[in-house]
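Technical annex B. To support the medicinal chemistry partners, we prepared a structural model of the target in complex with sodium ion, based solely on the information shown next.
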Amino acid sequence: MSFLEGALLALTLTLPFAVYRLVKGPTLPDRVVGLDLITSVAVAMAALYALLSGQTAFLDVAIALALFAFLATLGLARYIEYRGHKGD
Amino acid sequence: MIELLVYALVALGIFFLLVAAIGVVRMPDLYNRMHATSKAGTLGVGLILVAVAVFYQELSVAARALSALAFIILTAPVAAHALGRASYLSGVKPCEDTYIDELAGHYQKNHKLESVDKTTPSSPTES
Amino acid sequence: MILAVTSAFLGALLAPLVYRWLGQLAGWGLALLPLGLTVYFASLLPTVVAGETVRHSAAWVPTLSVNFSFYLDGLSLLFALLITGIGTFIVIYTGGYLKGHPDLGRFYMTILLFMASMLGLVLADNIVTLFVMWELTSLTSYLLIGFNHTEFRSRRAATQALFVTAGGGLALLAGLVLLAGMGGSWEISELLAKGEVLRAHPWYLGALVLVLVGAFTKSAQFPFHFWLPNAMEAPTPVSAYLHSATMVKAGVYLLARLQPALGGTEVWSSTLMAFGLATLLTGATLTFRHTDLKRLLAYSTVAALGALVFAIGLVPLTSYYGAVGFATFLLAHSLYKGGLFMAAGAVDHEAGTRDINQLSGLFRVMPITGVAVGLSALSLAGLPPVLGFIGKEVLYLAALQAAPAWIIGLAVLGFAVGATLALILTVPFFRGQPPTGVHEGPPSLWLGPVVLAGLGLLVGLFPGLYNPLADAVASAVKGAPTSYHLKLWPGFNPALLLSLLTVAVGVGLYFVYPRLQAWMAQDPLPGPENAYVALLRGLLRLAARLEQTLQSGSLRAYLVWVFAGLSGLVGLALWRGGPFRWPGETSALSPAQLVLVALMLLGGLLVLRLRSHLAMVVVAGIVGAGVALLFLLQNAPDLSITQFLVETLTAILIALVLLQIRNIGEVPRGRWLDKLVALLFGGLVTVLMLGMLSEPIELHLTQFFAEKSLPEGFGRNIVNVILVDFRGLDTFGEITVVGLAGLGVYALLKRLRREEKP
Amino acid sequence: MRAFVYNVVLTVFWMLVTESFTLSNFLVGFALCFLILLLARPLFDAPSRRYFTLAWKLPRFGALMLWEIVLSSLRVAQAVLSPRLSIKPGFIAYPLTVKSDLEITLLANLITLTPGTLSLDVSTDRKVLYVHGMFVDDPQAVIQSTHDSLEKAVLEVTR
Amino acid sequence: MSWLIVLPLLIPLTTGILCLVLGSRSAQRVLGLVGALGLLAAALALLSQVNQRGIQAVQVGNWPAPFGITFAADHLSALMVLVSGVVAVVVALYALAEGDTPREQQGYYALSHLLLFGVNGAFLTGDLFNLYVWFEVLLLSSFVLMILGGSKAQLAGGVKYFAVSLLSSILFLVAVGLLYGATGALNMADLATRVGSLAPGLRDGLAMLFLGAFGLKAAVFPFFFWLPASYPAPPVIISALFAGLLTKVGVYALLRVFTLLFTQDTAFTHTVILWVAGLTLLLGVLLALAQGELRRLLSFQLVSHIGYMLMGLGILTPLGLTGSVFYALNHMIVIAALFLLAGLLERLQGTTVLVRMGGLYQSHPWLAVLFLLPAFSLAGLPPFSGFWAKFTLVAAGLQAGQYAIVAVALLVGLLTLLSMGLVFAEAFWKNPPRPLAGTPTPPGLGVPVALLALLALGLGLWAEPLLALSQRAAQELLEPSRYIEAVLGVSR
Amino acid sequence: MNTLILKTTSRFLFTLLLLLSVFLLLRGHNEPGGGFIGALVAVGAYALFALAHGLTAARKLLPLPPLRLVGWGLLVALLSALVAFFLNKPLMTGVWFSLLGVKVGTPVIFDIGVYLTVFGALLSAIFGLEETADRTPEEAP
Amino acid sequence: METWMALLVGGLSAVGVYLMLRPHLIQFLIGFLVLGNAANLLIFTSGRLGSAFPPLVQPDGTVLAPYANPLPQALILTAIVIGFALAAFGIVLFFRAEQVLKTLNAEAMPERLEAAPAPSPVDEVREERA
Ligand code: NA
Ligand code: NA
C-alpha cells in the first residue's frame, strides 16, 4: 500500500465519526453537522484521489462539491429555523 | 523533495480532518461541534487541496485546486452561521457548561434580532 | 344466396327509414322483404327436392380460412322457408300489434336483423359463419326480449337469455373449433363427409359435449330451459317468431345438421334421447303451473323442442321414421305454435288480458282468430286432419322401432299434455259470455294465425304436398337418401293406438288441471333456475369478497403483492436453474472502498431505526454520499459529481416541502411481513447479481466507444460522448422526462396557488 | 474598477494572440497584463488606482486569514484531543464598527474561521454581531482582540 | 427513408415542444389535431413500407449497430404505432370538442403528445435501455396527465399510480443492468444472440424480472391493483388515452422480449405467462362484476382483457401470437371507445354510478348503439373485432392443447358479457331513479366515440386486413432471425 | 432566510456558481461535466439566491419563466438532432463545423439543449415550492 | 470482490423495499431513493470493477488502461437524472396530496370517494330500494 493509498484509508476513517453524529443526533442540526463533515471529507477525498490516480479530472469533483454542498446545509437550516428540531 | 512536501501536507490535512471528526463526536453541544467542522475541517481540506496544487505544479491545476479552497473558505462560515442561527432560533439548547449567553431573549417572534448596547472597543492605533 | 342473406341484413338496417317513410303501413311494406326471400327460396325448391345442393362461397377472412359460405339442402331450405315465411306474417303482425309504439322503427330493424341472422345461421356452411350468425341471433334476441326495457323483469329476462345462450354459444365455439380441427376443414359440408374420422377422433367426446351444451342452451333443453318462459316478457311478435318458430330451433337445427357427422354413436343417441325426453317432460309438467297464455305456450314449446331433440336422437337408430318424424313434426310445430302465439297476442291486444281464467266467449267476438286457434289446437293436440297429427304419428313409429317401452310411455305422457293444452286454449273461445267491447282485430293481427293454421290443415289433408321436401329434409338429417310416404290415414297400427292413448290421457289431465295448477303454483318446485340464481348470487358475492381482499385500497398491500409475486417467480426460476455458479476471478476493492461499503450498509440499516422523517432523509444521505464516493474511487468523476449534486438538490427539495407540511404524522413501524418480503427481494437481487458476475461479459461496446470517442465523436470525455452522441437518444428521452417533471410540478403547484388565493 | 476591466480585456487579447483558451493561459495572461498595467499606473485617475493597492492588500489579507485558520485549527485540535475537555463556551455580543454589507460579512466569516469564535447572527440594526465562543472566560478580551486584528484587517481591504 | 421510422417519434415530439413554446391556446388546439393526424399518416406510411419491404431499421446517430441505438419497425411495431395514431386522432378530436380551458392551460396538448412520443419510442426502439427511457417518458407524461386538475380522487389515485410505477421503473432498470452485466449487450438483436448462452437459472430469473417489470405496466396479476385504483380518477379523456395506450406498451414489451430474448425454456417461462394470463382474466372480470361505478368497472375489464393478450404469447404458436397482436390492437380501440363513452355518459347524467343512471336508451338511442358496439366487441361477440381476436386465441389454445386457458378465456368472455349487459341495463334501459343533472354536452363529443365504435364494427366485418397483418407480425416474432438480421445487418 | 451575511455572500456566490455552471457545460465534452451537471449547478445558484433574497428578486435575474426554458431547451435539442436530415444522414448524426476557430458540433448544441431543459424544469420546481413556502406563515416554534 | 458489491446492492435493496412498504409516503420516497442508489450500483458493477483510470481520452488520443467502463456510467447518469426527475415530481405530488387529502399516510387515502352498489341481475329488491 502506497502512502497515498494509506492516506485514503485514513481519510475514510473519519467517516465513522461523522456517521455516529449523523445517526446519534440528538438534534437535526447535529445531524447536519455530521453531513457537513462528510462533505468536507468528500472534497478531501476527491482531491486526494486526484493525487492518487494522477488524473486532475477529479479536482472538478472537488470544485463542484465545494461550491454546492453548503446549499444542502442552507436548505436544512431553513427547515430547522421554521419547523424546529423536536424529536429529530 | 516536492513529494515529501506533498505527503506532509496530505498527512496534516488528514490530521485536521480527523480532529474535526473527533471534535464532532466529542464536543458537548451543537455550537461547539460547529467549531470543529468550520475550522479544522476547512483547514484539513484546504491542506490537501494545496498538496494537489503543489504536486502538479501546473498553473491550471493549481488554479482549480485553489479555487476549490477559496470556495470552501467562502462557504464554510456562511453555512455555520446559517445552521447555528437556525438552531438557536429553533431552540437547540447549548450545553450546561455554557458560560455566558448574551443572545438569550434577543430573538423576536418574527426572527428579527435585537441589538444590545455595548460600547465599541476603542481602536488601539488610528492609522 | 349470399346476396339473399346480405340483402336481408341491409334491408333490416334500412327498416327505421322505411318506418319513418311509410308510418303505419310500414309493417306491410317491410313484409315485402321476407316475402321476397320466401319466394326466392321457394324457387329453389325444385332443385333441392331433386336431391341437389347449392353452395356459394366468398372469402371472408382467408387468414383464418374463414369463408362467407352458404350451403342449401333440404334441411336448410325448410328452415329458410320457415324463417322467411313466418317472418313475413310476423312483420305484418307487428304493424298491428305495436301500432303507434314510439320505438317501432327500432323494433322492425331488430327483428329483421334477427331474421337475417337466423337465415344466415341455417344457410351457413362455414363453421365460423354459422357461429357468427348464431351469436347474432342471441344478440338480437337480447334486444328484443328487453324491448320493454323500463321493466325490471324484461331486463332480467333479457340478461338471463343472453347469459345462458351466449354462454352456450361459447361452448359451441370451442366445440366447433375442435370439430374443424378434427376434420381438417371449416366447411360443414366437408365435415359431414368425414363422420367416421370425427367419431374415431380422441376429441370426439369433448367436441360433442361442447356442441351439445351450445345446442341445448339455445334450444332450451333441460336444464337450460328456464330462460325461455322468462323470455315471454318480450312483445308477442318476438315470442311467436323467436321463441317458438325460429331461434329456439337453432339448436335443433344444429343437431340435425351435424347428425350425419356426429350421430351414430351410443353416446349421441342416448344423450339426445335422455335430454330430449327430460325436456319434453319438464315442459309438459311445468305447463300446469300457469294460467298465462304466453307462459303456457312457452312451456309447450319447451316440450316440443324436447321432442325434436328426442327425434334426432332416434334418427340413427331407426330406418327412416326418426328423420321423417323430425321433418314433419318440425314443420307442424312451427306452423301451429307461431299461429297460436300470434293469436294469443291478438287476444291480449283486444281483450287486455292473457289469463285464461278471465277469458270467455271469445269466439263470438273474434271468429276468425277463433278458427285459427281451433285449427292450431288440433295440431297441438295431435288430432287429424292436421299436420300435427301426422308428425306425432311418425314420431311414435320411430320410437316404437327403437325405444324401450318405458321411454315410449313417458313420451306419451309428455305429448298428452299437448292435448290438455289444446283444450285449455280453445275452451275460453267457446265457453261463457263474451266480454264487452272486444272485437276482432285488424287483418294484420289475424292474417298470420289464419294462414299458418290453414297451411297446417292443407298439408294435413294433402301430405303429398310436403312429402318431397320432407324426404329431402330427412335425407339431410339422416345423411343418406331417405324417403317415406306421408299419409293422413296410416291405418290401424300401434302408433295410432298410442295417439288415442295420448288424447285420452290429455283429456283426463284437463280435468285435474285446475287442481294441479293451484297446487304447483303455490309451492314452486326448486329447479335449475334456482341453481342459475344461486350461481349468479355466488358469483357476485365472490366478486365482492375478492374486491375486499385483493383491491383493498391499501398501497402497501399492492406493493407486497408485487414484491412477493416477483420474488416468488424469480426464486422459482433460480431454483429450477439448478446448482448455482459462483463468480470466479473478480477485482479487489481497496480497503477504503470496503470501509465505504460497510458504512453504507450500516447507514441503510440505521435509517430504519429513526423516528423522524427529515432525520431519515439526512441519514439516508450516508448512502447517497457513499455511492458518490464509490463512484469517485471507481474512476467515474461525472457520476460522482452528478450523484452529489442530485443528492443535495433532493435534500433541498424534501426540506422545502416538509417545511410547508404541518402535520407530517408519526413514522410508522414496519411489519414482519414487510421485513420478510424485503429480505427475500434483497437476497434475490444479490443472487442474481452473483449469477450475472459469473457470466463472461463482452466489452465490444466499450471498446468501440473508447476507440471512436475522440476521432469520430470529437470529445475526450467518453461518458459525455456516449450521452450526447453514441446514445444521444437516451439523453433526449431523459431530458424530456426532466421537462415533464417540471411541467408536472408546475401543474401541481399552480393549482395550489390558485386555490388558496382568497 | 476601470483598471480591472482593462486588465481583463487585455487578457482576452492575449489569449487570442496565443491561440490558447485555457484557464492557465488566462491566468498567465492576466498576471502579465497586470504587470504591464502596473507600469502604466500613472495613466489612471485616483479611484481607479485603488485597483493596484488592492492588488497588494488582498494577498496580505488572504495570508492573514490563512494564518488565522491555522491557529484556530490548532486551538481546536488541542481542545478536541486533550483528555479533558477544557472549553468555556458562551454566546457573546460583539459591537460592530464596520458598516457596509461587505464589511460585516467579511468580518463575520473571518470570525468564524479564527480561533475559538463562530459568528451566529447580526442584529437587525446591524450594530451587534452575536458570536459563539469556545473559550470565553473573558468576553471583553475576545471582543478586544477581534476588534484589533480582524476588524482592522477588514477595513484595510474594504476602504 | 430512414427518417420514416423515426417520424412517429418526431411528429409528436415536435408537436409537444411547439405546444410548450407557443403560448396561444388556439394554436395549441390546432397543433394538437394536426400533430395527431400527422402521426396517423406517418404510421400508415410506415406500415405500408414494412409490409412491402420487410423489417425496417435505422441506426440513430449513424453509429453502426449494436453500438448506437437502433430503431426497428417490424409488423408488430408498425401496427402498434398505427393504432396509437388512431387513438391519438380520436382523443385529439375529443379534446377539441370538449375544449377544457383549465386543462389546456396546464399543458394538456404538450403532455399528450409527449406521451405519444414516449409510447411510439417504446414501440420502435431496438435497444433495451432505450426502451427503459421511453417507458419513463410515457410514465412521467402520464403522471402529469393523471393529476391535471388536482381533484381529491386524482391525487389519491395518482399517488398509488406513481408509487407502483416507480417500482416498475426500478425493476426494469435492475433487469437491464443485470442483462448487460451478463452479456455486454443492450441492443435487443445483439442480446438475442447472446442470451441463450447464459446459465439457465440466471436467464429464467431475468426473464421473470422482465415479466414483473413489464407486467406492472401491462397490469397483469399480481401486479394490476394500481390500475383500477388510479384510472377512474382523471378526466375521462385521459383515462381513455391511458387505457388505449399505456398498458399496451407493457404488452408490447412482453411480446417483444418473450419472443426475441427468452424463448429457451418456454416450458417454464411461457407456462408462467399462461398462469398469469389466466389469473388476470379471471380476477379482472370477477372484480369488474363487483363494481357499481362505470369507470372503475371498465378499469377492471381493461385489466382482465390484458390476460387475453398474454394468453396468445403463452401459447406461442403462430395462431396464438396472431391472436395476441390482433387482440392488443382491437382492445386499444374498444377500451378507448368505452372510456370516452363513459365520459359522455357522465356529462349527460352527471354521474357514472350505475344505479343512479338510466333512461339513455330512450333519450339517446344512438348512444346506446355506440355503447353496444364496443361492449359486445369487448365480450368477444361477433360480428365485432373482439370476436376475431378471441376466436383466434381459442383456436390457437385448442390446437396447442391448452384446454384450461381456453376454458378460462371462454368463461371470461361470458362474464364480460354479463358485466356489459348489466351496464347496459342500468345505464341505458332502466328509468333513472331520480332526475339527472347533466351538464351541457358539446355536439362534437360523440364523433370520436362513433369513429372508434364503427372501427370496432368495421374490423369485425372486415377483419382480414388487420388479421393478415397480425399474422405477419406473429410470423416475424416467431422468426427472430429476421429481426436480428434487419437490425444487425448481418445474417447469423 | 433573511440574514445579512447570507445575502451578501450569496450575491457573490451566485455569479460564481453560474460561472462554474457554464464552465462545466462547455467543457463537458472533454472533461467531467456536461449539460446536466452544468444545469444543476445553475439551479443551485438560483436556489441560493432565492433563499437569500426572496423569490421575486431571483425571478428578476431570469429573462424567461423557467417553464418556457424547458420548451426552448427541447427545441434546441430537437433542432440539433434534425440537422442531419439536410445531409441525408439518420437522426442525431453528429455534424461538426468550425466557428471562429472553435470546433462546434451538433452534439455540443444538443448538450446546450440538455442544459436549458434541465435548468428550466428544476428551477420551475424550486421556484414553485418557494412560492408556496413564501405564503406559509412563518412562526417560531 | 465484486461479491461485496452484490451484498451491498442486495442489502440496500432490502432496506429500500422495506422503506417503500411503510405506509408513510416520506418513507416510501426515501425507500425509492435508496433502492435507486442500489440499482445504480448494480449497473455500475455490471460493467465490472477494477479500473485504475477514468474513461477520458488523453489529449494524445490514447486511453489509459485499465480504464473504467464508460457505458454503465452513461447509463447510470441517465438513470440518476430520470430518478431525480421522478423523485422531484414525487416530492411535490406527495406535498400536494397532503394539502388536499390532509395526510401523508397512503393507507388513509381513499381509493374510492364513495362506494357504489353494483347492479345485480338477480336481485329484484334493489329496484325498489333505489
Ligand atoms: Na421494435
Ligand atoms: Na444525461
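Notes passed to the chemistry partners:
The first helix of chain E runs from residue 2 to 21.
Residues 157 and 230 of chain E are 4 Å apart (CA to CA).
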